[in-house]
Each structure stands twice: as structure tokens, then as C-alpha cells.
Specification:
Layout (H helix, E strand, L loop, with lengths): L9 H9 L3 E9 L4 H8 L12 H11 L7 E5 L16 E4 L11 E7 L6 E8 L5 H6 L4 E7 L3 E2 L1 H15 L7 H10 L3 E2 L4 E2 L2 E2 L2 E5 L7 H13 L3 E5 L10 H10 L4 E4 L2 E2 L2 E2 L3 H9 L3 E4 L2 H4 E2 L8 E2 L6 E5 L4 E6 L5 H4 L6 E8 L10 E2 L23 E6 L4 E6 L8 E5 L2 E6 L8 E2 L2 H11 L4 E6 L2 E6 L1 E3 L13 H9 L3 H16 L14 H24 L3 H9 L6 H7 L8 H21 L1 H5 L2 H11 L1 H12 L2 H15 L8
Parallel strand pairs: 1-2, 2-3, 7-8, 12-13, 13-16, 23-30
Antiparallel strand pairs: 1-4, 4-5, 5-6, 9-10, 11-21, 12-19, 14-15, 16-22, 17-18, 19-20, 20-21, 23-24, 24-27, 25-26, 25-28, 28-29
Helix pairs in contact: 3-14, 7-8, 13-15, 15-16, 15-18, 17-20, 18-21, 21-22
Length: 663
């Protein structure tokens, strides 16, 4: 029977759907969120890269891969369901909490905008499923997912429905002003030509269903409106890991009464051999004419065929299957068989209803249970959630150095104490509801230092205690994971135009930093003065082209990383090293600063709006460039008076319109 159940590895299925195309933006929705696991193991699926096996080196490579997407990868999550896991977040991902006033933010989606670089055609890859952005969701549980694609300017039934969902998402995340990733996704959805008909050639078009809005229809009403004429009297199978803690299931009763299935079977939630529902509910299903079932052992085990190594997998999938001998219509998504999930205005949920192509008669996936099992305390879908939740939001802007907090609870907050791993950081007074309040300069500096190590804080407000995930922006100015590239390393890195070459270089350099081990050999730097100067000119010329191309193509944030950022290969980082005598010969250092000044002058002249957009970055760069005067004096002191005359003649010509190095 298990042979009829479609199976695939979620990450591999997503990567196969992207199929090597360039990712332009990505929006993820999740209930539980483990930001460290997301960055290490889920983000790589977006990129066609050979990443290093070491997690830290992989993060350095991902930091580079994310630059063209600056601000356009976002995760919307329920702040009451944060998973700290075994790591923290440090990459350029917008982490936006969404807390509905009723119920939970419970959808599990990915909306990934891709472009075929050979044809320039754009499409939206849509994943709708049951897996949270956690290790359990993507690696361990039995989950479900539906993948489809919406082509730019193509025809789509789901595009208008997804647009409505994303507009509602923006409304729920009203505490945050910018949603660049959502804007990019909308840019494709707006071009789609809506399909008005529910079916084509007798087959049901996919439909994107969601609830959690005021006045929204219940799930059963939505199913009836879209496909009620087909669903009535079909066989029904429901997989849901959570049920209401009640003697009878109102959502299941509503389904049965509305669609009058011929036969119906429901997954029995189990853990450790114990049924996680009331005995009365178990009997009620049997009395209503239904059956309980469990998935075959082949689906529930992992780790090999031998019992000694096989481990049990928890079922977290949410699937509603309606089928006859000729067809099957399936709802896949986040809808548990619970009242908050089925109510139109309870939890925020999402799912994809679609007709499944069948080449043989569909059968039940679940194996019927004949004997009643032993029972344990029912587990609700909110199990483990809100254990110490505090409705405090925090954000930090690396560009301005400003830190702010917001109270998202009812009324004013109590005084709040903020900790990091048991160490008291600072106090926050009473906060007005839904108003961003700036921290003091000293407290912002403390937070900045802590964010180098962890993005999690612990907030205590009266008797409430919970984890807060800091929302970070201005990531071009966040110090890089890889900070100690030498000036020669940075110039060589700028010269590496193909992404594959840069990626391999990062892997090799990261390996060298970690100590002996496998890695690419590092080339020795050139020794002759000609090679040194040629290398300097070539490195800056390559960087100039990259900055100009990024600005011409409106990839402003990528250019910001290069010109004003705090990353290992940003211009200010290189120039700041020139003040250190160990960075090399004064002549080499002077020439590097002169090239940096020339590049800055060209960018200021040719892209004035971009230059004026980052006062903090300009200030840091200009302060670093002031070392040129010191290096000039060192050169004059080391030589004779003719050097001063030569530099007076050389500098204006180098920095003028006929400059040697051009962007």
C-alpha cells in the first residue's frame, strides 16, 4: 500500500523546482521558526552552489550569495513559536514576527521568484505545505507539500488568491514599514492573467485556500464553494497530527455532514505507542461510521531497513483526500483537524486544493486500526507554544546604529528587563502599545555587540518571560563572518568575477582560517612591483565594474555592500587596514588608498542619489580615506624633496578625468 503514497525529500524537491534558475526574492511563512537551522540547511536550496560541508564556511559562502538579494529574503513567523535550536541567525534575512489577535500564525509557505538567465523569463515557485522551518519539519517528520509555478504574464487561477493572502500578510505585519520581498513577489503576481473558471476540460484548477481574516469563510465552506459538487459522496481520508481535545470533533462532523462521504478514515495521532486523543473521541468516530488508521511502517521509519537502525518518524502532515475510482482531489497545507484551523477567523492557515493525476484507482493511504490502542493526554496544536511568550518586538539597524523596541501586547507594558543567556543587558521602561521606542545610545551599543554572537534575547516583563528574535536591517554594515582577509586577499577577491571562482576562494580561505584540513591551495602573492601595481589596478577596476553594473541594474543594496559596507571585501574595510604598518609597503598602501579615492569620486559623480543615500557609510569611508595624507608624508620622508613634487603632479592626474583606473 505504501507504494501508492508519493514521497520525496522536501529540500531536493524545492531545489529541483528552482532548477538552477537565479533567485530574485523569497518569502517564507512558518509557525515554528528555527533561524539557525533555516540559514544553514534551508537557504542553500535557493542557490545552485557547491557549498562547503563545514557550517561556518557554508555561512560565509551564503553571505556572499545573498548580496544580490539584499533585503529580499524574508521569513514571517509566529513569535510565540521560536525555536532557538543549536545556532543563531547572522545572514541577511528579514525576520518579521506576525501575531494575530486570535489564534496562531500557522501557514507554511514559500514564494520564490526565479529568473531564467538565458531567456530572462521570470516565474514564481509556490510551495504550500505542513513543514515548519525547523529541523523536525524539513528533516525528521512525515510532512506534505504541493509545488506549482506561476509564469510572469501567464494564466493562473491561484495568482489572485495568493495576492489576497500576501496583502493580508502585510496587514498583519503592520509594525514593519518595508516588505521588499513581498513587493518583488507581487510584481510577478500582478502580471498573471486570472483564470475565472474553476475547471478546464473537466479537471479542477488548483485553488489556494486560506483563512484567518475577519469575515472569512470556514474551511468547509471554501471547499464546498470550489468543489462541492465533486466532493460529495466521495471517499474521504484525513491526515492531521492534532485534534480537538473533546469527546466529539466539530470540524470532522461538519465535513461528514456536508460532503456525506462513502467511506472515511482518519489518522490516529500517536506518540510512543499511545493515542493522543480522548477515548470518547475514538469511540465517537467509530459510532459515526468512520475508521481510524495509521500510515504504513515503511513511511514511518527512517535510517535503513534494519530495525536496529531504523527510527520512528512523527506524522506532521495535514492532508484531506477526496477520491473515487476515477479521480482524486487533495487539500495539502497547514489545516489541522481542529476548530481554530477550520474557523474562518481563528488561526491563519493556508492550503492548496488540486486534482491529482491518477493512473490507477486511488486507495486509502492509512491502514485501518481494528483494536483500540492505549490512550494518553491529548496534545493540542499549541503544545509547547507560549511557554513564556512576551509580546516584545526588537529591531536593530546596522547602518544607523539605532535600536528600537515595540510592545505588541494589550495596553502599556510593565517595565522590562532584557537578558542574554542569563546576563542582564539593559532595562526598558514602560512602553506604549504599538509604538517603536528608541533605546539609549549605550543600550543600542550593548545590543550591537551581542548581535555579533546571537540574535536571541530574553525579555522579562513582570511574571512574563520569553525569547525575542531581533529583526536586523542595514546588513551591508553588519561586520562579516569572515573579517581577517588581508588587503592582498581582498584585491584578489575583487578580481574574481565568476561566482564559482569567488565561492571556491571563500571555501579555501575559510578552511585556512579554521586550521589544517582539506581545501584549495592558496596562491602566493606576486613579488614584483609591476605585478603588485597591476594587481591593485585590476582589483579596483573589477570592483568598479561590479558597482557600476549593480547600480545600472538597480541592485542598489549590492552596491551598498561593496562601497559602504562592513564586510570582509567592502571598500571601507580595505582602506581602514591601510593605517596599519603591517599591511604592507607604504607605497602599495598609498596606491590602494588613491585607487579607493578615485573610485569613490567616480561613484559620487555618476550616482549622486546612491552616494547621498548612506550618510553613515560615506562618513566611515571618508574617515578611512583620510589616511592618504599620512601615507603621503611617509613616502616623502622616506625619499627626497622631489617625491613631494612628483606627488603634487601625479595625484591630480590620477584622480582627474583622465584617470588610469575607471569604474
Amino acid at each position: 500500500m505504501s507504494e501508492g503514497i508519493p514521497r520525496a525529500v522536501l529540500t531536493e524537491a524545492l531545489r529541483a523546482q528552482i532548477n538552477g534558475r537565479e533567485v530574485l526574492a523569497a518569502v517564507f511563512c512558518t509557525f515554528r521558526f528555527d533561524p539557525g537551522f533555516f540559514e544553514r540547511e534551508i537557504l542553500p536550496a535557493l542557490f545552485d552552489l557547491q557549498l562547503h560541508q563545514d557550517p561556518q564556511i557554508r555561512r560565509v559562502q551564503l553571505e556572499e550569495a545573498l548580496r544580490p538579494l539584499a533585503g529580499r529574503v524574508a521569513v514571517y513567523y509566529d513569535p510565540g513559536a521560536i525555536v532557538t535550536g543549536d545556532g543563531t541567525a547572522c545572514l541577511d534575512v528579514r525576520r518579521i514576527p506576525v501575531r494575530p489577535r486570535t489564534g496562531y500564525f500557522h501557514p507554511k509557505n514559500a514564494f520564490i521568484l526565479v529568473r531564467d538567465t538565458s531567456t530572462q523569463e521570470r516565474s514564481l515557485v509556490v510551495l504550500t505545505g505542513s513543514a515548519n522551518l525547523t529541523q523536525a519539519g524539513w528533516w525528521e517528520n512525515v510532512e506534505c507539500a504541493h509545488l506549482e509555478e506561476i509564469a510572469e504574464y501567464g494564466r493562473s487561477r491561484t495568482a489572485p488568491e495568493i495576492q489576497r493572502f500576501l496583502r493580508h500578510l502585510r496587514t498583519m505585519a503592520k509594525n514593519f514599514e518595508t516588505h521588499a520581498a513581498l513587493d518583488e513577489v507581487h510584481s510577478v503576481l500582478r502580471t498573471a492573467q486570472p483564470i475565472a473558471h474553476r475547471t478546464a476540460n473537466g479537471r479542477l484548477h488548483p485553488h489556494f485556500l486560506f483563512n484567518g481574516r475577519r469575515g472569512a469563510q470556514s474551511l468547509v465552506d471554501q471547499l464546498d464553494a470550489v468543489a462541492g459538487q465533486w466532493l460529495r459522496h466521495a471517499d474521504l481520508e484525513v491526515l492531521s497530527p492534532y485534534l480537538d481535545d473533546a469527546d466529539a470533533s466539530v470540524p470532522l462532523e461538519t465535513l461528514i455532514d456536508r460532503f456525506q462521504p462513502g467511506k472515511w478514515r482518519v489518522l490516529l495521532p500517536e506518540e510512543g505507542g499511545l493515542a493522543r486523543c480522548r477515548p470518547e473521541l475514538y469511540d465517537w468516530v467509530r459510532e459515526r461510521g468512520g475508521e481510524w488508521g495509521r500510515l504504513p511502517k515503511a513511511v514511518l521509519t527512517r535510517g535503513g531497513k534494519q530495525a536496529a537502525v531504523a527510527t520512528h518518524r512523527s506524522v506532521h502532515a495535514k492532508v484531506y483526500r477526496f477520491f473515487t475510482k476515477d479521480w482524486e482531489i487533495t487539500l495539502v497545507g497547514s489545516f489541522n483537524l481542529t476548530s481554530p484551523a477550520h474557523s474562518g477567523s481563528g488561526n491563519v492557515e493556508s492550503g492548496m486544493l488540486s486534482e491529482v493525476a491518477v493512473d490507477r484507482r486511488p486507495r486509502f493511504w492509512l491502514e485501518a486500526i481494528e483494536e483500540p490502542p492505549p490512550f494518553a493526554q491529548p496534545v493540542g496544536e499549541d503544545d509547547g507554544v507560549d511557554q513564556g511568550y512576551v509580546p516584545l518586538l526588537a529591531r536593530y539597524d546596522w547602518a544607523s546604529g539605532q535600536a528600537e523596541v515595540l510592545w505588541d501586547g494589550a495596553g502599556e507594558s510593565r517595565p522590562i528587563q532584557v537578558y542574554d543567556r542569563g546576563v542582564h543587558l539593559f532595562d526598558v521602561g514602560q512602553l506604549e502599545r504599538a509604538v517603536w521606542t528608541a533605546l539609549t545610545v549605550d543600550d543600542a551599543a550593548i545590543l550591537r555587540e551581542r548581535l555579533r554572537e546571537t540574535s536571541f534575547l530574553t525579555a522579562v516583563a513582570g511574571d512574563q518571560r520569553g525569547i525575542v528574535l531581533v529583526h536586523e536591517t542595514g546588513m551591508a554594515h553588519r561586520p562579516s563572518i569572515l573579517l581577517d582577509l588581508s588587503p592582498a586577499d581582498i584585491l584578489r577577491y575583487w578580481s574574481m568575477l565568476p561566482a564559482e571562482q569567488r565561492n571556491a576562494y571563500l571555501a579555501a580561505h575559510g578552511e585556512a582560517l579554521r586550521g589544517p584540513g582539506e581545501g584549495l591551495p592558496m596562491e602566493a602573492p606576486p613579488d614584483t612591483i609591476f605585478d603588485r601595481f597591476a594587481g591593485i589596478f585590476h582589483g579596483f577596476a573589477s570592483l568598479g565594474r561590479a558597482v557600476r553594473d549593480a547600480l545600472d541594474e538597480e541592485r542598489v543594496e549590492e552596491a551598498r555592500f561593496r562601497m559602504f559596507g562592513a564586510k570582509y571585501d567592502s571598500v571601507p574595510v580595505l582602506v581602514e587596514q591601510m593605517a596599519n604598518e603591517t599591511a604592507g609597503d607604504p607605497l602599495d598602501r598609498y596606491l590602494m588608498v588613491l585607487c579607493a579615492q578615485q573610485l569613490a569620486d567616480h561613484v559620487r559623480r555618476d550616482f549622486p542619489a546612491f552616494w547621498a543615500s548612506d550618510p553613515a557609510g560615506i562618513s566611515r569611508l571618508e574617515e578611512a580615506l583620510a589616511v592618504r595624507a599620512v601615507l603621503r608624508e611617509q613616502l616623502i620622508a622616506r625619499n627626497d624633496a622631489e617625491m613631494a613634487e612628483f606627488l603634487d603632479w601625479y595625484e591630480p592626474r590620477f584622480l582627474g578625468e583622465t584617470a588610469v583606473v575607471t569604474a
